[in-house]
Amino acid sequence: MAKRDYYETLGVAKGAGADEIKKAYRRKAKELHPDRNADNPDAEAQFKEVNEAYDVLKDADKKAAYDRFGHAAFDGGMGGGGPRRGPAGGQGDFASAFSDVFEDLFGDFMGGQPGRGGGRTRATRGSDLRYNLRISLEDAFSGQQKTITVPTAVQCSSCDGKGTEGASEPASCPTCSGMGKVRAQQGFFTVERTCPTCAGAGQIIKNPCRSCGGSGRIDKERQLSVNIPAGVETGTRIRLSGEGEAGLRGGPTGDLYIFIEVEDHPLFQRDGADLWCRVPVAMTAAALGGEVEVPTIDGGRSRVKVPQGSQTGRQMRLRGKGMPALRGTGSGDMFIELAVETPVNLTSRQKELLREFEREAADNSPERDSFFRKVKGFWDGMTQ
């Protein structure tokens, strides 16, 4: 049976460049890998076909010979002039061909990065840190500069983060030759694992620093100044770049994330940029009308007119007296909600006056009269 054209096997045009061939191979290898095609009995044969084609076309000399002589360049029919080792004679290096796509298929599982060879970075970036900061509503209104104490890991000053004693440098790991990974052959698979000697660092420290034990960092509390912008809300996140944990062996420092929590206020309730304040008023002030003095979040005072006949729940707005906008300009509003207060602990004289008022106020309660008319209609309907 005649062999398929190698270009056709990979799904590329004749004369395709190295990058295009490599991309096509990776795509085909992923698609036809036997582990992903357990229900396809032909997958293994097709997978080997793809590896065979790529083993030839990825090599410039083999590709040139194939372009000129086709499959005859590898079946021994060239009289010794052409390349003799190749997939057609059973000598194809499937492990070499498959290594290009191995990290794409299993890179995440093995800890590698797809499409990248070589060893791991020896220096490790420090961890990001989180700090929860509680502030008052007044601080959120005006904005503040706070000093916080953060327990973290900082670069060891004794070894300048190298992890070695004195001025010595870390030595390259003899097991992995500084790559941080070791490879083992299993059939046509190349299995890559973290080096057991250096734990993936690529280096070993023969004379560790006495202060940090070779890690290149020590635990320490740091004091930092944090600028809290006006208008922050609970859940606001502030990022301080480079203020996190120091990296291992001179690696870059992580970041510090400050999460804001605004405390509840005894007078004001917040709704975005708006503030709400529930103000109790005397029954007489609500009936006759008058003024009430209310506080504002900036520490000031405002006098608000109470219209005659005001009921509990009536709202009035003070424009621009809310919280400043965190993003943008302007401020929210402050809403006053009235709570008409019933008097308690009445004297005999006060009770007498209220009874007299009740006799004279038969037509002064429209909401009550409307309610009882509806109740009467409801009961009448139930009777019928």
UniProtKB/TrEMBL annotation:
Alphabetically ordered keywords of this record: Chaperone, Cytoplasm, DNA replication, Metal-binding, Repeat, Stress response, Zinc, Zinc-finger
Signal peptide residues on this chain, from the entry's feature table: none
GO BP terms, alphabetized: DNA replication; protein refolding; response to heat
Cofactor: binding details: Binds 2 Zn(2+) ions per monomer.
Any one Pfam family match given in the protein's UniProt record, by short name: DnaJ_CXXCXGXG
Domain J: 5-70
Stored InterPro entries: DnaJ, DnaJ_C, DnaJ_domain, DnaJ_domain_CS, HSP40/DnaJ_pept-bd, HSP_DnaJ_Cys-rich_dom, HSP_DnaJ_Cys-rich_dom_sf, J_dom_sf
SMART domains reported in the protein's UniProt record: DnaJ
Subcellular compartments: Cytoplasm
Cofactor: Zn(2+)
PANTHER family on file: CHAPERONE PROTEIN DNAJ, DNAJ HOMOLOG 1, MITOCHONDRIAL-RELATED
Role according to the record: Participates actively in the response to hyperosmotic and heat shock by preventing the aggregation of stress-denatured proteins and by disaggregating proteins, also in an autonomous, DnaK-independent fashion. Unfolded proteins bind initially to DnaJ; upon interaction with the DnaJ-bound protein, DnaK hydrolyzes its bound ATP, resulting in the formation of a stable complex. GrpE releases ADP from DnaK; ATP binding to DnaK triggers the release of the substrate protein, thus completing the reaction cycle.
Designated name of the protein: Chaperone protein DnaJ
